[in-house]
Amino acid sequence: MKTPTTRFLTSSLRVLCCIVALTASSAWATLITWELNPTGANGAVGATFKDFTQSGYTITARGYDNVPGTDTAHELYFKNVGPIGSGSEHGLGLVGTLDNELQTSGGTPSNYIQLDLRSILSQGFSGLEISVGSIQAGESFLLFGSNTQGELGTQIGGAYGSAFDDQFVSISGNFQFISIAAGAKDVLPVALRGTITPVPEMSALFPIVGLLAAVSCTQILRRRRAAQKTAPLV
User: Fold this and answer.
1) What CA–CA distance (Å, rounded) separates 17 from 25?
2) What DSSP element (H or E) covers 223?
3) CA-to-CA distance for 170 and 187, rounded, in angstroms?
């Protein structure tokens, strides 16, 4: 048989569980987007790599030439010109290539831009998507996944044609590095985005736990005193 004190403690525990559940559900998933030319620049980056930070989360882009043996680093280029045909011309390319974009030769990527995702993956990001532009009729881009920096890796999915110009497409697989390359003619990476769900800190629950403990102790003492007053004298 449960005593009034036991019933009170049980109710308090249920209230605490509800508070924890509500606190967890309040940590809504947040969509973060990393623009690969965030300031709308038009010119050489001045390096073969570039960090992009959004809301405190950082990814790194690196340019490479796809050559036999070890791929060689290639300087990055911010491109921002007016649209050509139906293709967006705003994003991150390479210095010295045709139109400063990613190129292909005989159906094989001549170069690529690799995104280092290790930092954001370790922080719990999921649902990653990539946007690529400058895709006119007859052009396409490819995605590759790798767990080695500077290695093109394994192709993910098929070729994405002009219908996907400046549109986000899902990145499948579980890779630390994602590379964007041309499948036909030339293309221009635009942005990456992903979702993170913050985990509520338990320290935020400590005041609530302390309050419930204090209330519980007060109720226990009050009930004991009341019981002592009403207990028959022996």
Assistant:
1) 12
2) helix 206-230
3) 18
DSSP string of 125-163, one letter each residue: -EEEEEEEE---TT-EEEEEEESSTT---EEEEEEE-GG
Percent composition of the chain: helix, strand, coil (DSSP 3-state, to 5) = 25, 40, 35
Residue 182, CA distances (Å) to 59, 127, 162, 191 in order: 21, 23, 12, 16
Residue 8 CA to residue 224 CA, distance in Å, equals 14
Give 25's pLDDT tier (boundaries 50, 70, 90). Answer: very low
Contacts of 16 (CB under 8 A, 6+ apart): 208, 209, 212
Mapped onto helix, strand or coil, the DSSP state of residue 97 is: coil
Distance, CA of 153 to CA of 136 (rounded, Å): 26
How far is 225 from 155, CA to CA, in rounded Å?
Answer: 75
Cα end-to-end distance, the chain, whole Å: 25
Please state, as a whole number, how many other Cβ atoms lie within 10 Å of the Cβ of residue 127: 12
Reported pTM? 0.76
pLDDT by residue (tens digit) across 175-227? 999 999 999 999 999 999 999 987 655 444 455 555 555 555 566 657 666 66
What is the rounded CA–CA span in Å between residue 68 and residue 48?
A: 19
Cα–Cα distance measured from residue 73 to residue 113, given in angstroms and rounded to the nearest whole number: 10
Interhelix angle 206-230/4-25, rounded to 10 degrees, is: 170
